[in-house]
Amino acid sequence: MTQYNTISIYGSHDASVTFLDKSGAIRVYEYERFVKKRYAMFSTSFDNRIGMGSNDLERRSFLTLIKSNLQNEDIRNVLYSELNQQDISLLKDFFPNATFKKVGHHFSHASSGYFSSNFDKSLIFSVDGGGTDNNVQNTTKAYIGIDSKITEIECVNFDFGNPYSAIGYLISEIKAGVEGDECMHSLVYAGKIMGLCAYGKIRKEWVEHFFSYYESNNLRKLCENISVPFGSNTTKGDLSYDLAATSQYVFEKKMDDFIIPYIEKYNVNVTIVGGCALNVLYNQKLYEFLEKRNLKLHVPPNPNDCGQSYGMFLSEFPSLGSTEVVYGGIELLDNDNFEEYLRQYKYEDCTYSKIVDHLNDGKILGVINGNSEVGPRALGNRSIICNPSFPNMKDTLNKKVKFREWYRPFAPVCRIEDKDIYFNNATESKYMSYAPTVKDGFKDNLKSIVHEDGTTRLQTVKKDDHDFFYNILSEINNRNEVAVILNTSFNVRGFPILTTLEDAFYVLDNTELDFLVVNNKIFRKK
């Protein structure tokens, strides 16, 4: 087994560390999961955002955990980005023999996507709300990847992400979600706008002004031009919905203007990364455009900044990108306490038949399997699942389990071989990267995962991808029922995807979650 003596660390929001563990597996530890703070920042440079900063104990405890899991404790190379000298001094305490190398933001994004794509050649688009390469900020970059080399084609000083997210500042239905993040560019706005836009209509009289807004990133001027009051939470109802819908429309057009000329010129597969690669509505349209040209699209599981350290690591070791990383996240941190929960709670041995019986009874189950997922989406290892055929299940989840806004959609999971039975224009979607539409014949059966515009954030699974989900779906299929389940992230309100039994049992005890599945046991409420 080859010994590696390198780690990589990204310090700004969505901080993470990538390394090889004692078994030689590539691991990505997201800092937010360890400190239980959404979007947590490792670097001391960024403590100005309340609720995302670090203290020295947290940072040292995180590094201690990583060091205890390293394949090779004698780290000689540290790849980094968004760290200051104080941060580097701390790392030198843990890795005194290491030299430090800074890696560019967009190049890290490009590496995370391309080297995990298994493409021999690909266009790569890093489309973000910021990022710094060579001290140039708020750029968007295009690259070409050929074999193990990535070459920059163009750097444009154009910002897609911030204009998109800033619309959320105006909309009263969208809350910042993180204390101290009630600013014009809250990190939660973009995902919520993507859910809300389905309820609005594109106002043609606004479109030209939105195009100008995307060029200038001047929200106050946009508000003046379209006669909308500027300020936090100044719009509601149809006005909010139409702002979201029009912004999504212009975002897609601007993305096309940037990306499609390269596709027409190079006619090769495409990889898209950066925070904007989380926009599944655009990804679906780009996939359909490429499919007509017999080209493929790859979106990694962690295209946003939580994948930065992973990209740095692959830039040094490209061949490791061929190994699936999505279930290489942080482990269950308090699994040693499992026996205590066995004494406190009633439980039964877990079988797929029992799980499906509970789902068919309308029950909601929290699921913990192995290591956490890498990236912002729960894909079966830290999930809440239920039967989407119950018409009120979406409202129940939003109001009584997830405690989130009514307009936010939920994702279905199906076996890869069943995707064309239930969905239109569906491609393999292991990471919930696309938004196909639900076929008319199944909309009534799948009400809780059909969004207002008919789309859905599909996850497809093969047995080798996730045998737990695959076997549940196969059990449903064997009963001649619709083999689709609803999947959403397992987390406590206002916190990241959970990493402790303590938090999992807290959700079981304090919400309308019915069961908890962990370590081959099904736990009931007390």
Structure description:
The chain has helices spanning 31-35, 56-69, 85-94, 105-114, 161-166, 189-196, 204-216, 219-226, 238-266, 280-292, 308-316, 338-344, 352-360, 393-401, 419-422, 467-478, 501-510; strands at residues 6-10, 16-20, 26-30, 77-81, 99-102, 121-126, 132-133, 136-137, 140-146, 149-156, 269-273, 297-298, 347-349, 365-368, 382-386, 411-415, 423-424, 437-438, 459-461, 485-489, 515-518, 521-524. The chain has 526 residues and is an alpha/beta fold. The chain has three domains: 6-102, Nucleotidyltransferase, domain 5 (2-Layer Sandwich); 118-302, ATPase, nucleotide binding domain (Nucleotidyltransferase, domain 5), CATH 3.30.420; 335-524, Alpha-Beta Complex (DHBP synthase), CATH 3.90.870. Helix 4 crosses helix 11 (308-316) and helix 7 crosses helix 9. The radius of gyration is 22 Å and the shape is globular. 51% of the residues are buried.
Poorly predicted residue ranges: none
- Amount of helix: 25-40%
Inertia-based shape? globular
DSSP strand content: 15-25%
Query: Would you tell me the structural class of the helices and strands?
Result: alpha/beta
> Which sequence of strands runs across the widest sheet?
13-22-21-14-15-20-16-19
Task: Put the structure in a nutshell.
This protein has helices at about 30-35, 55-70, 85-95, 105-115, 160-165, 190-195, 205-215, 220-225, 240-265, 280-290, 310-315, 340-345, 350-360, 395-400, 420, 465-480, 500-510, and strands at about 5-10, 15-20, 25-30, 75-80, 100, 120-125, 130-135, 135, 140-145, 150-155, 270-275, 295-300, 345-350, 365-370, 380-385, 410-415, 425, 435-440, 460, 485-490, 515-520, 520-525. By secondary structure, the protein is an alpha/beta fold.
